[in-house]
Structure formats: structure tokens, C-alpha cells
Amino acid sequence: MEIENEFGPAFTLMTAKLSPGEQIKVEPGAMVAQSNGMEMKTGMGGGGGLGGFMKSMVRSALGGESFFVNTYTAGSSGGWISMAPSAPGDIEAFDLSPGQAFFMQGGAFMASSINVETSTKFQGSKALFSREGFFFLRAEASDVPGKVFYSSYGAMKKIEVTPDKPIKIDNGHVVAFTDGLHYNVTKIKGLGSFLFGGEGFTLDFNGSGSVWIQTRNIQALATQMIPFLPTSSQ
User: Fold this and answer.
1) What is the pLDDT of residues 91-113, one digit of tens each?
2) What residue numbers bound the domain in which 90 lies?
């Protein structure tokens, strides 16, 4: 699979060029354009069977992703498909080794190779009181290496975390992180910070691995838009 990114980092468009018969999973709504001869089938995001149905329900209700995932297959001459996230932002790819886990904030997943499966991971009970999502999406390749594509709101920055260099990130700015990192959900001290300061909870990462942050927070944007929304007439 050959990948080309254009117009980044604010309005990235990703094009995947597929060999004959090659497949890619795409989140519904992410497809922008495609070549002729591409076949699409819609299936449950968590896989088939009763177990896949339950995973798809959790993925949709708690993970911030769609219940269904579209699988595109290139024809005998190959093909291409262009994708973009729903919000203005960047797209990155991560190469998964078999059995390796990769975690994404709800709504960040955009596409993956055919062998990647997704499930949900709970952030912790403290996150229930956060204004952000409290479930991560977990991606894992089955028996061969896989690739997952994820998006941000705004530009993305990669930060390396080591045992002697932990990091604290606002929950709404975490995009993704690698296996090998551990985190605690921490409330910023002081009631005023939660009510008036625009800050509430952070994820405190430690261990060894990489974490990606986004320069914008879509929940913060939604809060800024509330005063401008129309109200029902009395």
C-alpha cells in the first residue's frame, strides 16, 4: 500500500494506492474520492459473529467510532482511495507489529489495513467526571504486521516519553499513544480551575513510548460556540 498525504497539516488529504486485490478498512464518512473498479462492503467494526456485534456496539457507544466499517478492495488493475477526517486536521500512520497495541482517542481512527482489529479501553473511573471522552480505541494487528491511520483536530506533534521524562497532557489534546506507556487521570488542583479556568483533567503519562498530541481541542471549540447557538423562542 502506497500512501500520499497532501495539504497538511491543517486540511490533510490522504490517498492510499492499492495493488490488485489489496484491501483497506475505512471509517464511514472518511472517503472523499476513489478510482473506478473499487469494491466496497460494509461490515461491523468489531468483526463478525456475536462477539463482533458486541465489540461493535461498545466501539460505537463508548469509543466514539461508527458501528460499521467499510472495506474497500482494489480491482484487477489496482486502484486508489482518498480520505480525510471530518474536522480540519492532520493524518498520521502507525506500523503495528503482530500483537502490539496502539491506542487512540475516540474519533481519531480513520482507516487501517485489513488485519487490524479495534476494541475499547476504559480510561479509568476518574475520567467519568471529565468533559472529554473516557474510552480509548485500541488497535491491534492479528498475525502479520498492520497499519493504522488516525487523525487529529489541528496539527499533530509526537512526544517521546521515558521513565525519567514523564508528561502531563490535557485530556482533550491526546490523540494517540503506543503500548508501553501507562497513565493516570488526574484532576487539576483547585475547584476554580475546573469551573472557571477551562481546565479539568489531565492524563499523566509515564513509562517508555510515544504519545501524539493535537494543537486544537474540539470540545473547547464546542464550548466556545454555545453562546452563538440559536435558542427556542418563549
Assistant:
1) 999 999 998 999 999 889 999 99
2) 2-155
